[in-house]
Write a structure and sequence with these properties.
This protein has about 300 residues and is an alpha/beta fold. It contains eleven helices and eight strands.
Length: about 300
Amino acid sequence: MAALGWLTPRRRSATARSVLAGEASAEAARKSTQDLPSEEPAFPVHGDAHAAAFFDLDNTVMQGAALFHFGRGLYKRKFFETRDLAKFAWQQAWFRLAGVEDPEHMQEARDSALSIVQGHRVSELMSIGEEIYDEYMAERIWPGTRALAQAHLDAGQKVWLVTAAPVEIAQVIARRLGLTGALGTVAESVDGVYTGKLVGEPLHGPAKAEAVRALAAAEGLDLTRCAAYSDSHNDIPMLSLVGHPYAINPDSKLRKHARRLEWRLRDYRTGRKAAKVGIPAAAGVGAVAGGTAAAIALHKRRR
């Protein structure tokens, strides 16, 4: 890894591994966006350059867990055996029934994924990730949350996914959704080949907060003007960093915490229309309202 000269020192509130994971994720996120060709928008939007939005992925932006869908796609391509698919299927079923992340199940899934991709090229997995997105993920995007993300973009803000899924897969999803980029778990690679090890630890819980903190420092963001969205109480550290936290499809612990602190709540599992979502306070009211309406209308036309 390159020297992380711009990154912040370790904080007492996080372990050394979570700080390392967060900082590595932020570095990968910035590098991926810097490598993209820059295009001038047809109608430039001058928004708040010091504000951004951070969206958890699993059960916030997308129904289910990205890692499990990725595993299904790899099985289809004969990356592993039937017994491993059964494990992925069980973990996905648990996620759907419980509606929350189980740390033990998520760790098992990540360990399985690391062993599966070991020895494969990063470019190969990213190419496969594009196919898997179309096969399993595209139809599982929550239109309400997608409209919120688009509203931030229309207000001239950057929008980042923040997920425990592999950063390469997270970047594919972010690109397909038209978002700025993604913070995700960084798997070690040498000469473009996965070693089967992680850099730090999975981007989960405190590590997500560290990634957001590191990216904000590098991008010159004012976190009090930023927004964050998540369904899980595991992401309370990330939500607590920003001035505008939102609980989306919250689990019971996050719902209780959000109500106590008067955070805004949105639940798309009940069949509520996306038009009923609130306007993020971190963005310009006119631009956000227009962006939300446009995103909802676009979704309806595509159905």
